[in-house]
Every structure is written in C-alpha cells, then in structure tokens.
Amino acid sequence: MATTHTLRAKHRRSALRTLAFLSPWLIGFAVFFAYPMISTVYFSFMHYDGFKPPTWSGTKNWTYVFEHYPFFWPALRNTLWLVVIMVTLRVLFGLGIGMLITKIKTGTGVFRTLFYLPYLAPPVAATMAFAFLLNPGTGPVNSILEKIGIPAPGWFNDPNWSKPALTLMFLWGVGDLMVIFMAALLDVPKEQYEAAELDGASAWQRFRFVTLPNISPIIMFAVVTGVIAAMQCYTQPLIAGKVASGVIQGAGTMFEPGYPEHSTLTLPQLVYNLGFQRFDYGSACVVALVLFALSMAFTALLMRRRGGLIQAGD
Amino acid sequence: MTQVLDRPVELKAPSSPAERTARRKALLEWIAVHSLGVAAALFFTLPFVFVFLTSLMSDSQALSRDLIPHTWEWANYKKVFDTPGFLTWWRNTLIYAGLGTVLTVVSSIPVAYALAKFRFRGRNLTLMLVISMMMLPPQVVVIPMYLFWAKQLDLSGTLWPMIIPLAFGDAFSIFLLRQFLLTIPNEYLDAAKVDGCGDLRTLLKVVLPMAKPGIAAVALFQFFAAWNDYFGPQIYASENPNAWTLSYALESFKGAHHTDWNLTMAATVLVMAPVILVFFFAQKAFVEGVTLTGVKG
Description:
The complex is a heterodimer.
Chain A: H1 4-10, H2 12-43, E1 46-47, E2 55-56, H3 60-68, H4 72-103, H5 108-120, H6 123-133, H7 140-147, H8 162-172, H9 175-187, H10 190-198, H11 203-232, H12 235-245, H13 267-277, H14 281-303
Antiparallel strand pairs in A: 1-2
Helix pairs in contact in A: 1-2, 3-14, 4-8, 4-9, 4-11, 5-9, 6-12, 9-11, 10-11, 11-14, 13-14
Chain B: H1 3-6, H2 17-55, H3 59-62, H4 75-82, H5 86-117, H6 123-135, H7 142-152, H8 160-163, H9 171-182, H10 186-194, H11 199-210, H12 212-228, H13 231-236, H14 246-256, H15 261-281, H16 283-294
Helix pairs in contact in B: 2-15, 4-15, 5-9, 5-12, 6-9, 9-12, 10-11, 12-16, 14-15
C-alpha cells in the first residue's frame, strides 16, 4: 500500500478534491465549534451579563464557581453518582437483557421489539411518563406497592430517591445496549463454548472464560459511552425536578435547579442556570469549560491509539 | 413460526434415562428463560400501558389511585388537539425535524464519503475531531452560540438557530455514515473509475444507491434527535410560544392544567406515538444504526 505522502505528491489535485468534500464540516467546525470555544475561554475571564459590554474580571468567575456558587459541588457529586452507579447498573442490566434475548427461542422478534421500544421514547415524554408513574400520591407504581404492602418511596420528591428513580428510567431505556450486546454475544465463536464444555467448564466458567473475554471491548465501549452520556445528562433530571416541584413552563420561569434539594442537579444544568437564569455568562463559561475538559478526557479513552475502542484507520 | 419447531420438546419417547434427564433439563431451561423474558417484557411494557390507560381517564379518576379507566374518555385526545398552539408546535416540530434531516443528510454524505474512502493526510485527525464533536455536550459552546444567534443575528424566538447549523454536517451522522460506507467494497469504486466516472459521479451514481440503508438510518436518527430535542428550543425558542416544538411544549400541559394527568398523558402518548409507529416501518434501519455506531469499525 502506497503511503498517503506519495499519493499526495502524485495527485496534487486530490487535495483540493478532499477539501471540497470535507468543506461542509470544516466550515461548520470553525463557525460552530472553534470560534465559540475560543469565545467560551474569553468569556470565562470576563464579567458579562448580556447587556453592559463585557469587562475583564480575571479569575473572579473561576473562584466564584468553585468557592461560592452553591450548586457546583453538589452537581459534580450528582454527576459522579450517575457516572458510577447508573452506568454500572445500565451495563449489567443491558448485558443481562442481551444474554436473555439470545437464549429466548420462542417469539424472539416480539420480545426484542418490546425490550427495544423504551429506548426510542422521546426523553421529555419518557420523563413525563415516569414523573406520573412514580408520583408518590396517585402514581400507579406506588398504588401497586402499597397494595402488596411494600413501603412506597417518594421517588422524584425525595432527595434520597430521586437519583434511583432517574436510574430506573434509564434502565428502562436500555434497548441500545441490548442490541450491541446481542450482536457481540452472537459473534462469540461457537467452537470456544464447545471446547470449554468438553473440558467440563461450568456455566459460570464458560461465561467468565469464554463470553467475557470475547465481549470485553463492547463492555468497555458501553462503559465509556455511558460515562459520556451520564455527564451530559440534562433533559431528564431537569424535567423530573420541574414536574415534581410543580413549576410552570414558560419563558423566564425561575426555578430552583435540581429539585429536591439539588439532588437532580447535573453539570450541564449549571450552564443554563448561570447563563440563562442568572445572566452571569462568564461563570456559565467556566462550568462549560469544566464540562468540556471532562468529556474530552473520556472521549480520549474511547480513541486511544492502541486498544482504543473506535479505530480511526482501517 | 419456525422457532416453535426448535423447541426442545418432542413427542417421541426418550430412549435412555440420560437422554430423558437432558430433555427435562432443556425443558426447564426453556421455561426459566421464557418466564424471565415475560417478566422483563412487563417491566418494559407496563409504563406504556399505564400512560395510555391514564390518558383515557376522566379528570377526577386520573387523580385517584385507579389503574383502569371507568369510562373511556377518548375526548381527552381531542382536548389536547384543541389546546391553543398545539398544531403550531406540531408544525414547528415537523419543520425542524424535516428540514434539519434533509440538510444533515445532504451535508454529511460528502464528508462521510471522504473519511471512508479517500486517503489523505490528516484523515485520522479529522475523524478523531468528528468523534470528539459527537461526544461534546451542547452546553459547552452554548453561551457564545446564543449570543451569536440572539444578539448579533437577532434570530432568537425562531427555529433557525437550531436548523442552520445542520446544513454544515452533523458529527454523529458523519460518523454513522462513514461506518456504513466502510462496508461498501472498494472494487465498486475502482470499477466506476475505470468506466471514467469522476468522484462526484461515483458518489452519486454508485455509492449512494448502495448506501440507502445507511442514509435511512442517519435520516431516522437525525429526525428523532430534532423531535426529541429539548435544550435547543429551551435556549432559542422559549420566549416565543409560536416557535415551541412538541418536546419543549409537552411540559406546558402539566403547567397549564396543573395536575391534569389524563391530558398530560394523552399529550405524552401523542409525542411518543410517531416515533413508535415509524419504528415499526423501519426497524432494520434503527437496529443497523445502533450496531454500526456501537461496534468498532
């Protein structure tokens, strides 16, 4: 295979051709990412409320966010909670459902469709549905729990239960993981199972020494993309908190973010709270940069050159 | 159904005791697996069922602990449609999702094609940047973007700040399409070249017809990304209810009618229904999209 370098020397015109094909995205990258990213860094050192022209404020926004803004650390803690607990449960549950679907022999198509559908539910609609299902007063879940004599939790109205309630909702939408685990499980070579069985391996040993090593790249992929999704978690906790607290929708509605007691607050919500509720664009940019640093760190994990999960070359 | 024949239950009498225990074990396993399957199916389905049942309850019953409607109030759906603004939100959603999808597909195809089939210096770097953009939370650049659209171009309260960027390629769509185009053998492209096709003609006449399933997957994902989007409308459209989309407006049913769960759930059903309907017509495209982006390529 010729190297890209000699090819480029051979076809000087091909560079122009490549540029032409890439141009939509290159322009988009410059206008909708590079320029705003530089501005975000710039604004993080400015005092700016959107009305008076921005003024230099040094590291004031940074110390404000880290030391005085009451929501930053709770939001970071919540995000870490979601990253650790929710991602773990989602991967385990997705793997379980993926294994179950490969074992089901009768009506496979029906089961697969039923398991997959919740993944497609629009996030706002799913959250409205769960806010109703889990509402402590008249929600069907608590009605059933009380009928069978199990103490019913306050779900989205109880700071100790709001994150588990969110997690339950994300477990419901595990269809995407089911599909990729199913594909991976079906790709495990049959001979390896047969060989293990001949050696007298138990079901657990076959899972531990045949299944797991074969699907470990997919597990890693599910973990890393799960972590990135957990860090971006915005719509669902916001809606759950707003519905549970009874806030009315509309322009300029002020709401205490993260009802109840900051328990559903995540980092992306802070950007909205600081920028669009408090009109402190400078501090909002500080949070945006923290979010950027975190997502890029995890994206780098996905793309490490060797053993990376998405390979650039082919 | 052919699967029924695969069931390990046979009418023929087992010949040996060992075979009999093996069969019994297989039958027990079949029962265990399918009971678990039914339990899981209940977990995934019941939320939809309860939402639907509540959407058909009367106002007072929706506030009670009943699970099944006494009277089936189909008029709830008519009430939702009669809500001021509902048809406007529906139209806005279709414009955002429809126009956005066309723009995304048209602008992402050449980029994905170059990343999948051209060899050039900086290709890996470009691909890595595309993947990074895919992983980037929209909140990271929203402050300058908002100031740009609202203060400099005075376009807040419209759908344009959400639609226009889609004309410049979308990272997820580019990545998904690129994964799909990788599966098209290079021999087809070489043959087209031998026949005297230029790059553009090869793309239009040879690659695109073969890439239809990939394009369908991208179009579906982009359509539903717009359909589901809450953050974009919240930032750019919240001040003007005439620019709201369904996903954003859904919450207002809760607000406008306080705890009228029956109407809120009817509206929820109406926002979910199109997605689920489309899924039944385009299952393959969805599943293909998820596997292509989930498995390394």
